[in-house]
Amino acid sequence: MSLANNRHQLVKTAVQGGVSPANQWAPFEVGSAGEIFAWPSTGGITYNVKIGDSVFGWAGEHIEPSVSSTMTHKNRKAEAGYQFLACCGNKAVVISGAAKGAKGTVLGHHGGVEHLMLDFPDAALDQLTCDDKFLIRGFGQGLKLVDHPDVYIYNLDPDVLEAWGLKERADGRIEVPVHVIVPGHAMGSGIGSLSVTTGDYDILCHDPGVVEEYGMDRLRFGDFVAVLDHDNRYGRTYRKHAITIGVVIHSDSPLAGHGPGMMTLMSACDGKLVPVISEDANLGVLKQIGRFI
Question: Which domains does the chain have, with CATH numbers?
């Protein structure tokens, strides 16, 4: 039985966007070890990178799986609304072109470029063009656990929360299934952001010893992960015994201070959240999307 939540109080709002153009950020870029590369990066329709795939091993950096979506990139306030209202697990529908009517799922948002990643099945991807539009039923901001006000939840569809498998322990703490537990010192770009309801922050994977010690080589798109000693209740900061839970939304990157991106889903202090390793802790498993169809 799922923990009681306030889904009946949440507002469901339509937001609409289109495919964001694929970008080349510079003719060449330089990684943290001095390597020079010219790789694909953010944006566009990505056919062969999906929820459930490893975030490592691609000849690309900050790769966003399936469809990268945005409004216009012209109005920052409106763009923030698109990012803010669309939550992990929300429904997305194609409303134009040959793929009209195809249904997809929101994965999460990527800060800096202000992209929203949408998962669609292959049949829809094959028909999509870069001119197509998507309607998303934004639903989830304001979500709470009724009996646990000290757990802060952001960017999360209540259907995902209820299917996730959270368990309340006898001591009042809450067990949360995750695929990987990340040490707080392995977090980079995005720390210090005042908002956790748009954007993401990056898991640093440039130290092989840390990656091996914490099993971070297992990171996949769509994974639920825990970050130790990070407080995301009112922004992203370090706090001993806090735990932040998020979902992985973009690939690894060789750039210093960057790595696989994680969007915040919940956070609490004083050991309230207890991450429990599970192979099935992935949005794709819960929604039967991506590589889990």
Answer: 11-138 (2.40.10.170), 152-288 (2.102.30.10)
